[in-house]
Amino acid sequence: MVTQSIIRTIAESEQLSRDKARRRPTPLSLETSRLDRYYARSSGSGSSQRPVTMSTSMSNEAQQIGFDPRWEDLDWAIGQMFIMGWDGTEVTPQIRHLIEDHHLGSIILTAKNLKSAAEMANLVRELQTIAHNAGHPQPLLIALDQENGGVNSLFDDEYVCQFPSAMGIAATGRADLAYEVNKATATAVGACGVNMMLGPVLDVLSNARYQPLGVRATGDDPQEVSQYGIAAINGIRDAGLACCGKHFPSYGNLDFLGSSLDIPIITQTLEELSLSALVPFRNAIATGKLDGMFVGGCAISNPSMNVSHACLSDQVVDDLLRNDLGFDGVAISECLEMQALSHDIGVQNGVVMAVEAGCDLVLLCRAFEVQKEAIKGLKLGIENGIITKDRIRTSLNRIIRLKSTCTSWVTALNPPGISLLSKLRPSHLALSKMAYDDSITVIRDNDKLLPLSRSMHQDEELLLLTPLVKPLPASSLMKSLLQAKGAQASAPNTHDTWVHRDRGTIMSGEGVFRELGRCLARARNGKVLHTSYTANGVRPVHENLIHRASCIIIVTADANRNLYQSGFTKHVEMMCSMLRTRGQKKSVIVVAVSSPYDFAMDKTIGTYICTFDFTETAMQSLVRALCGDFVPKGSLPGTLRKSRRGMKSRKNWIVEDYDRDRDACGLQELVTAVARASTSDLGCLDKATPLSFELSNPNIEGAHFVVRNSSTNALYGFAATYAIDRTGILGSIFVDPSKRNHSVGTSLHRRALRHLRKKRNIKKLQLGIAFPGVFLGIPIDEGHTKSWFANNGWDTQFPKRLTNLVINDLSTWSVPEGLLQGIQRASISFDLIHGLDNTDGERVLTFVDKHTNPEVTELYKTALQEVKACGIVRAKSADDTLLGTVIICSPGNLLSTNIPPLMSRDHEDIGGVLAPVVPPSQQSALVLQGLVVMGVRRNKAYKSTKTVLSWVQDSAYEHIVAMGFEILQSFEEITNTPDAWADL
C-alpha cells in the first residue's frame, strides 16, 4: 500500500507538471540529450552495432556470452561450427569426446537415436550436462527433423501425436492449421529438449508428379508455399524453438542422372528460380523470423551459374542467399557424408569449401572418423590461409545469436519431458484427428461410391489391395522390425542420402497397411479381404479375390515413381470394367496414400481419394471417411486446386451488417487466422482486436459488414468502411484463408462499395486508411492481393506508398552522425505542443488538413486531446513558418487500440511516432529526419524500449531507413472515382 501511494503521488505530481506545461509549446533542443548520451555509453559502439531482437533475459545472456574469453580460443570457435549426429540410442564415447574435447556445439538427432519421448528427454539432458560440465558457455543446439507425415524422427504413440504432412495440411485449405500443427509439434519435441526444428520445407514442387520430395512440400504454387511456410515458422517460433527453412535454393524441380554418385541438377535459370522456387524463401526471410537455412547439395547448371554442390558455392550462399535475399541467420550445409560429395571432393575439402562459401554450421550425420576428419580439415583450412579468423568469428556470432533466442542453461538442463506431454496430450489428439479428417481429399467420385454404405451391402465382401512399401522411419512397425532384427538393423535416416531417397529398403509385405485392413474389417463386421501386390503384376490370387469381392480398394504410394503400381491399378480397373459388362458388381476405389498426383489427371479412375501419408492416424481417418463418419472436405493443393476452383461458378454470399455483440468473437478469430496465413506482417495484424476497427469519432462514420455462418457464428469475411468529408474509404477487407477463392471477398467488396456510393456527397473512394491504422492499403509484398483489387475495379497504377518502420531496440540507437549539425545549419527549430484549446493546436490542424487526408487530420485531433500520453512535434523555419509535424505518443496510449503496431506484446514498451506531415520542399528530407529524431528522443524519455514510426509517405521511407530504422510493413493506398463502380 505504501509503494502504491508513493507511485500514485509521483504520477499525480508528473501530471500536474504536464497540465501546467501543456498550453505552451515546449522547445526541443538539438543538442544530444543526457538520455542519448547514457544510451550511447551503455551500448558501447553506438549506432554501428547491429540491433538483435530478443527477450531482455536472452539479450543479457547473449551479451555476457558474446564476450566470453573461450570464444577467442580457435578450437572452441571451430567446434561451434559443426552439427553432428551418431548411431545409437545412448551417448557413445565418440559423441562425448566430440562435445568435451572438440567443443562440438550442435547435435542432430534422428530416428536412430530415439526410442521414446521419456528416453529422448533423458538423452538430451545427458548431452547438455556433458556440455555444461565441459565448460560450454552456451547449451548445445539440439536439432530434429519432425516434419510430420512420413518424416518424423521421434515416435511415441503414447505421448507424441502424429500430424499430416505439409501437403496434407495444405489440402485442408487452412494456413491457420499449419500454425497450430507446427506449434503443437514444436511444443512436444521442445518438451523433450529439442531447441531447433529442421523445418519448414519451403520448396516449390515445380514438377510435382516426378519429384521425390513429394508430400513433404506444400505444393507447386509459390505464394501458397509462402503462406503455409510462414504460418509454420510462426508456430515453431511461438513454441519457443528456432526454425530452419529448407532446402535452399530448391529441391522442387531436379533432374536425376541415376547413380547415387551423380548429383541431381537444377537446370532453371536464376530468373526462373526467382519467379518460382525462390519466392517462399524470399518471403520467409522478409518476415525476419527465419533463424536458419538448410542449403542443399544439388548442382546448378544454367547459363549464368555452374555449381557442382550448392552448399559449397559462394555464388549460392554468400551471393544469392545473403546478398540478394538478405538472409543474416545461420546457414547449415547439407550432410557432407553424402556419397556423391565425399566421392567427388572429400570431406576435408568439402568442409573448407562450405565455410568459405558462407555456411555457418557444417552437417555430418554419423560417422565418427569422418567427423574427426572434418574438424581437422577446417583447422587445416585456417592454417593454409583459406579461411580467415574473421570468417570464423562471423559464423560464431550468428550461432551465438541463434542459441540466445532459443535456449538457456536453465531450460536445457531441465526439459519438462513427460509431465508437460501428458498435459498436452488431449488437446494435441483432438488437433491431430481434426487435421487428418480435414485433409482427406476426394478428387473424384463419379459413380457415387462413397460412403461405402451407399454403394455396398453389409454382407458383400470388400477387397483391399496394398503395395509393398518401406515402413516410415518413426513408426510402431519400424520399431518392431528393428527389435526383431536386433542391433544390426538401423532405422532409415532422413539425411542418409542428399535427397532422402534411401534405396536400401525394408519391405514388410502388407504389414504397413495391416491396421488399415483391420480398421475396415471392424467397421464392416469382418467382410474385408486383404492382400498385397508387387511388380509381378496381377497374380492368380488377385484374380480369385477380385471375383469374390463386389468392391475393390487399391492403395498406391507414389505410383508415378513406382510405375508397377500404376500398371497394376489400371489392369485391375480394366478387369473390373469387363466384369461389369457381364453384369457383375465390381466397384473400384483408388486411394493415393502419398503423392496425390498418382491418378489426379486420369479420368479412367472414377473414384479417387488422397490421404497424403500412410501413418496409422491417416489410415484411421481414411476408414472414417470411407464409412461415412464425416464428409471429406480436402482439396488438391496448388495449381490443381486453383484450376478446379476456376471451373466452379461464382457464389453470392449473404452480407450482413456487423453486430458487435454477435460478431466480436468471430472477428477476433478471423483476424488471427488471416494474420497467421499472411506472407507479410499486414501492419501487425496479429495485435488487432475487434475494437481496432471502431472509432468514437463523430466526424468519421463507420459501417462494417460480415459474411458469416449463421449456424456457428463463425465469420468467413469482414469489411470495414468509413466516410469522412467527401471521401468514402474501404478501411479493411479480410477473408478466412479456408474460404478464399469462393467469392466471399467479392461479395463483401460489392456490398461495401455499394454502401459508400449511396452517400451523395462522396466524391472519392479510397482503399486503405491511416486512422484506424489496421489496413493502410494493399501490402506491397503480396502481389496476388493487388491483382485481386485490380480485377475488382481499382486502378492500381498510381498508388501512394505508405510505410511503417521500427527501431526494435532503442538502447542501441543513436542519432546519425552529422544530422543534427545539418538541421542547425538549415535554421530549423522544433517544439512540442499538447491540447486543442490553444492557437498552436488550431494552427497544426489547419496545416495538416491542407496537406493530407481528412482521416489524418482526425488522428491529429485525437492525439491533441490525449494530453497525458500524446503530443505534436512541430518543425519551424527561422521566420516561424510551419515546415512539418509529427505525432508522438508514450507506451500504452489510447491510440494503440486503433493502431495495432503500437500495441504491446510480451511486455514491450512501444512508443509511437505517427503520421509525419512534411510538404515537398528542398528541405523536406531534413525536416522529416529532424521530426523523427525529436520523436524518438521523446520516446526514450517515456522509457520506451521500441519505437514504431507509422505512415511515412512515398519514397521518404528511404531517408528514415538511413537513420537506422527497419521496414516493418509497406502498403499502397489507392484512390478511385465512384464512377468506376457505376454498375453497383
From TrEMBL:
Source organism, top-level taxon: Eukaryota
Q: Does the keyword Hydrolase apply?
A: yes
Tell me the Gene Ontology biological-process terms attached to this UniProt entry. Answer: carbohydrate metabolic process; peptidoglycan turnover
Q: Give the UniProt keywords, A-Z.
A: Glycoprotein, Glycosidase, Hydrolase
Q: Which Pfam families match?
A: Acetyltransf_1, Glyco_hydro_3
Segment Disordered: which positions? 39-59
Q: Where is the N-acetyltransferase domain?
A: 703-768
Q: Per the similarity annotation, which family is this?
A: Belongs to the glycosyl hydrolase 3 family.
Its recorded name reads: Beta-hexosaminidase
Q: Which organism is it from?
A: Sodiomyces alkalinus (strain CBS 110278 / VKM F-3762 / F11) (Alkaliphilic filamentous fungus)
Q: Upper lineage ranks?
A: Eukaryota, Fungi, Dikarya, Ascomycota, Pezizomycotina
